[in-house]
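Chapter summary example.
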Amino acid sequence: MNRSNSHLSNAWARIHPVPIVRGKGSFVFDDQGNRYLDFTSGIAVTSTGHCHPKVVEAIQRQAESLIFGQMNCVIPAVTMDYARELAEVCPEGIDSFFFSNSGSEAVEGAVKLAKVATGKTNLIAFSGGFHGRTSMAMALTTSKGVVRSGYQPLPSGVFIAPFPTAFHLGWTEEEATRFCLDRLQEMLKSQTRPQETAACILEPILGEGGYLPAPAAFLQGLRQICDQNGILLILDEIQTGFGRTGSMWVHQAMNVEPDILTIAKGMGSGLPISGIGCSGEMMSKWQPGTHGGTYGGGSAIAMAAARATLQVIQEEGLVENASEQGRHLRQTLEEIVDPLDMKTDVRGAGLMLGVEFCTDQPGWVPSLQEECLRRGLILLNCGLDGNVVRFVPPLTVSADEIDQAMAILREAVQAIA
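The structure predicted for these 417 residues follows.
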C-alpha cells in the first residue's frame, strides 16, 4: 500500500516519518512492525494511554445510539451528564461550561467571555505563553516566533508581561516573582489601565515555552492584583489539566482559583474536545447567539470519550499515579543529566517534566531525539531555542515503562555526549 506523505501539508513538523497503525497503553506501532514507547502522548492528549479499553467501549457504545446532536437544535444527554460530572472535579465557582473542539477555540471563547462579562477590551498575557494558533490566540502567544511569523498584524489590545523564569534570569524564585509582579503593576499604570483591562491569561506551567512552572507566590500575587483592579484571571490549563501534573489542576496545588478555566488535550483521551469553565453567573453574560460553533458540545462520541476518561482517571487513581511516577521519572532524569558537562535543569510537575540542555553544540537536542527514536522512544522538544526535551507519558504509565524509557535515554545521551 502506498502511504506517501506527499499529500499531507508540511505545516506539521514531524518527529516520526513512518505511519503509525496501532496504539496500546504507552506504546505505538508503525506499519513496519516496530514498537515505540510514546512519551509524547500526542502532546499530553492520550491521558489514559492509547486505546484504553473503557474509553474504546464508551465510544463504541455511544456510536450505536447517537453520534451527533447540534447544541442549538438538541442537547445530547451525554453532554449534560458530562457537564455535571466535570463540575464535581472543578474548583468551587467553576460550575458552568461551554464545550468546543480545540484549545485554540477554548482560548478564543474565554477572551470573548471576559470582554462581554467586564465590558472591557484589553488583555494581558505573559512572555513564553502558548495559547493556540487562531488569530486572537496567536496574539496572546510568545513561546516562539515561528507561531506568529507571517500572520501579523494580529488582533490589538494585547499586552505582554514578563513571566518569572528564574532559571534564565539567574535569580531566586522570590526575586523573579517580585520583579515580574512589579512590572505587571507598572504595566497597569503605563500601558493598559485597569478600567480597560478585561483579563490576564496565564499558563501556570509554560508548555511550548519550555515547561517552566510559575512559582506559587507569583500566581497568588497575580490573583491579588486582578482582584484589586477588577480584572478577571483566566488560567489556561489546556496542557496541565486532568491530572497531568499530579493534581487534577495545577492551580489547586498553588491555592489559587481562576475566574475562567480553559481545558482540552487530556480531556478526551484523543478525541477532539475542549471547554471553558466559569461560574453560572458569569456564563449568563453570554446572550444566546453571541457565541457558538457547529460541533462544540454536539459530538456525543467526543463527550462519551471525555466522560469515560474522567471516570478512568478517578477509578484508576491516575492523578496519584502521575504524582508517584512523576517523582520516579524526575529522580531518574536527574541521575542521567547531572554528570553531563553542561548546565541542565529538570523541571515541571507530575508527568509533565522537561529537561533544558544548555549547550553551544548545534543540533544536540535533535540528535538526542533521533537517537532515542532509533532505539524506540518518541520524545518532543520545546522552548524558545528548542533545547528543552519534554517527557509526557500517559497517566497510566508504569514504573517499568519509565525504566525502559530511561534506559533508552541513557544510551542516547552516552552516544552523543
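To summarize the output: The longest strand covers residues 343-349.
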